[in-house]
Amino acid sequence: MRSSTGTPQGIRKTWTLSTEALVLCVCAYFVAVGNHSFWASALADRSPGDAGTWRFGIGVFVLLVLLHFIVLSVIATRHTTKPLLMLLLVCTAFASYFMGKYSVFLDPTMLRNLLHTDVGEARDLLAWDMLTHLAWQAALPMWLVWRVRLRERSWRSATAWRLGSMVLAVGMGIGAFMAVSQDLSSLMRSNKSMRYLITPGNYVYSLARVVTADAVEATKPMVPVGTDAVAGPAWAGRSKPLLFILVVGETARAMNWGLNGYARQTTPELAALNVVNFSDVGSCGTNTETSVPCMFSRIGRRDYDEDRIRGEESLLHVVKRAGFGVQWRDNQSGCKGVCEGLPMQKMVDTPDPSLCSGSECMDEILLKGLDAELAGDTGKGNRLIVLHQMGSHGPAYHRRAPEKFKRYTPTCDTAELRKCSTEAVVNAYDNSIAYTDHVLAEAIRFLQGQSDRYDTALLYVSDHGESLGENNLFLHGLPYAIAPIQQTQVPMVMWLSPSFADSRHVDLSCLRTRATQRATHDNLFHTMLGLLDVQTSVYEPALDLVKGCRPPAH
Question: Binning pLDDT at 50, 70 and 90, where does residue 319 land?
Answer without folding.
Answer: very high
